[in-house]
Specification:
Layout (H helix, E strand, L loop, with lengths): L1 H40 L22 H8 L6 H15 L14 H5 L11
Organism: Rhynchospora pubera
Family: Belongs to the GASA family.
Protein name: Gibberellin-regulated family protein
Length: 122
Amino acid sequence: MNRFISNNLIPGLIFLLCLVQIVAAGQLEYSTANRNVNSSSLQDEPGDDTGPISSSPPGPKIDCNFACARRCVMASRQNLCIRACGSCCLKCQCVPTGTFGNKEMCPCYASIMTHGLKPKCP
């Protein structure tokens, strides 16, 4: 009788063990997928007005101090120009070439406005 019970119990235990493995694998896959979703949602933080990371300009970071000094070299108010250009450069990672105009080269730079709806970036 003991042999009969153990022989009938083994297939049931194997089935139960397989079921536990399948459930554990599903939980692992769910937690990994959930972790990936959570980490990607952290990229666009609330209060960050620069937009999602995917919309930021590609390429290496530029030297904003050098680029803005070059952009503002002929400005009558250099300190003001460099300060405004620096904040725009940090946000957009782009400064148009030349000392004036050429803003079509950097759409982000051209689109930043002051509270009075005037272009902020020189």
